[in-house]
Amino acid sequence: MTRITGIRTLDVRAPTSITLAGSDAVHQDPDYSGAYAILETDGPHQGVGMTFTIGRGNDLCCAAIEALAPLVAGRPLAEVVGDGAGFWRRLTNDGQLRWLGPEKGVIHLATAAIVNAVWDLWAKEESKPLWRLVADLTPQQFVDAVDFRYLTDVLDRDRALDLLQAQVPGREARIAELERDGYPAYLTSAGWLGYSEQTVRERCRAAIAEGWTAFKTKVGIDVASDVRRCEVMREEIGDLPLMADANQVWEVPEAIEWMRHLEPFDLRWIEEPTSPDDVLGHAAIRRAVAPVGVATGEHAANRVVFKQLLAAEAIDYCQVDACRLGGVNEVLAVLLLAANAGVPVCPHAGGFGLCEFVRHLSAIDYVCVSGSLEDRTTEFADHLHEHFVDPAVVRGGRYLLPELPGYSADLWPASIDALTYPTGSVWR
Fold first, then answer.
1. Domain boundaries of the chain, sorted by first residue
2. What is the pLDDT of residues 75-86, one digit of tens each?
């Protein structure tokens, strides 16, 4: 029986601030980074998990991973995965560390790294990619991984079981469909806010030639430049779906007024129009900007925030993040909440390792939870995938299903040597 013998951390950072890849209205000099939790074991595999930051936050996340490590080290893997909800509760409910959240902030990001590493280890032990590991669980095993604390007024175990049982009959057919066709994706990396107009045009043209059929642009600093950026995008992509992302920069009235200037561009959604914690603000914006949808979730700290966003009818699109939430267990909870509310899940990705993660999560949602591809699409940005042993691959604007065992977080040794901070070659 494999035992987790210890956890070590790895601080990996890519200097994307040099090219302004990832730049938006709030985060104008990001260095896409991953704070890694690596589970050492007495077996043949390591569990590799990470949480995403955009630079110096890695220092804090790595320290928090080390603080949580004693809650996991020394435990048999079978014990951990045999009581998924209990394990997750123990990790998030430590009597002293819980005070730092609870279930939010740096301590929750660190939780995500460890939880993701546990699932990676489990999938490797079963010789399956993560999505297939979850797809092979029974509905009872699926709900056993979910902590329903604080959710039962909206979604309890019995209702979750009903949702999952309803999707069992078509499960294998949906898997075959994804293996054949892939999962719909949209492209963000043509529209970073720091890019020049010419760069945006060139990237849109190249993307269309590659088969992309949906795009997103960043907005939020200046109305006139946003209008021009949307004009450029429309000139290049025609009537293909176009989304916009404000990255939390606006006040609620400001968001409503700003969006009036963008009405001519037939946006599918406005993403993160205000504070990620302002549930009522999102609801007000949604009412005012319809038929443009409202999308948010990449900074929604936990399943309870998503419960409120959904209950308040504040969002049209649920954007789970593989690392902002407390790892796979909490993502499963939010997939169930969204299915219960009838809201499509369109995961946030783009950052270091996030595209690698979310293709698993989207497959799980379709195969196990929602059973639908209607109005669903998953974010992709074409940066840094070369560093991953099992990189995200998109063809014809659709994610291909990962095939290697695990959760796809492993890095090539040469990439670790180059990107480890501050000793790696790109930082020296």
1. 4-128, 167-415
2. 999 999 999 999
